[in-house]
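User: Please predict the structure of the protein below. I'd like the answer in structure-token form so I can feed it into my own downstream comparison script.

Assistant: Understood. Taking the following sequence of 606 residues as input:
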Amino acid sequence: MLDGRVYRTAFLPALLALFLAAFALQDRPTPGRAELPPDAFSQDRAFGTVRDKDPGSLQGLYADFPDRSPGSPGDQALADYVAEDLAAPWAEGERPTFTVRKTTDDDGYTTVVATRPGKSARRIVVLADRDSRGRAELSATAVLLELARVYKSRDVNKTLVIVSTTGASKGFQGAREWARTEAGAPVDGVLVLGDLASNDLRKPWVVSWTGTPRAVPLGLERTVQAAVRRETRADPGGPHALGQWVRRALPVTLSEQGAIAAEGLPAVLLSASGELGPKEGATVYRKRLRVFGRSAVRAVGALDEAGRRDQPAFADAPSGISTLRNVASDWSVRLVVGTLLLPALLAALDAFFRARRRHVPIGPWVAWLAVAAVPLPAAWLWLRMLGATGLVDAPAGVVNPARWPVGSSGIIALVSAAIVAGLAWFGARLVARAFARAPSAEQPVNGRRGPGAPGVEGLAVATALWLSVLVGLAWLRNPYAAGLLIPAAHLWLFAAAGWRGRVAVVALIAGLVVPVLAVVHLAGALDLGPHELGWGMAIAALTGSAFGSTLLFAALLAAFAGVFRVLIARRRMGDRGKSGPQFATRGPLSYAGPGSLGGTESALRR
């Protein structure tokens, strides 16, 4: 079924691509430096004491606003206090530095935005969420107020925007709505403040995952990392190259910077407890608040000095996979992955055209594969309908499953989604049978199951074609996700083409190893067990997220089912099915021109 010469020749572009990618490695961008000394940050004013609770300190905010749930009277009172503090001048007799604006949505969530114009229209945004479970998360608001006090009396080159939102426990609803209004604005960076005071340390302290296939500007990430490194005297941490690949291939994040980056704004999270945040009731420490508060002040100063006045700060910085010293650019990754997938793609297309010339039925088997892929998208659409109509309580975006319990409504949603998936598969199967009847993978011969080459070959070619289209579309959308499918694209191609026995079974299983390991790595990074992972996928569907990943996973499972059925059919056929129908030829195998069959005019004249 496959032409080995086409397959082997198609690897030549991959060698050239690897050569180009090796010489296309770039240096990591130099982080920005701050001239403003962070000594202006007052830890006593930001942290407060148990006895002397400064109204704007962490201790004072925790005592004065015990109920900070989104939209509650306590949250509204805290929003009013934040607005008044930001609008106040830095000294008596001085004019207010910030222009403060408050907006309230239909759910009663208030967003406070304070703007200080600079010499440039380029913006630096510092954002904190008031919705917090304890002192550790509330430290973000305390540091936000102290940072604003620092910059009230300092000159800035760029426009400084201070944002206080709510709704973190509801899927970062306030941050999402603010980001939608600012999409396309000239923003050099959004510094999201998280837990800045707890002793629940987890790296990385600077989180840059966007929740999309795009990456945050590497210059922004390294600038904030440099500020943290200088203040903490420690490595802020970061994923290795393979970890970066997995997080770009499976773009999921559970922290607030992802909600902002999803709207196209460059955002990073500064948090002592990393992406997952602190545990409820985590202890806070004055020294911890001091070093991370100073880091935030230093990072804002560095961003203010980065780049030209009216140009993006990190326009020339590379984007890609960062190693210890270099950066593999996104375009080089796309080139290498595409050329490594090219042999499987060309071999599958060649097999398809060969089968068409022999009138092998392929269309019915493509419909069979489509039916196999229907259940997961149907379940996603059903869950999305439940979430959009409010029949099931759903957050505004993806959240940590541990913070959004399943509950009775969640169980009903999951059970109903499973039923809808089964009904959708059954209905799609009936429709497919009504339009075209797929030939059996084991063609009856004299009333018994025989070699059945037309059926087996049709399914094998359809599976190879399906898989090639799958990896091609994945490569166009996200080359990192397509990179996870390289083993499956090659191994399943040969397993469907004719490999038998243990070799075929090993190839079938090996094709799933890389995607499964990637999912395991992601679950470990997000501290999700099997149940939390499943419920997290359901939450993503309820909020309308990850539909592309759902289609990719469904198509991959359909391809797996196609190869599996081919192997089962060949095993049932036994030794007689080891090869398809043979075509008799005359003459030397290496020549099929005039004279090979005899009886030409030149031979008759002799």
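That's the full token string. DSSP finds 22 helices and twelve strands in the chain.
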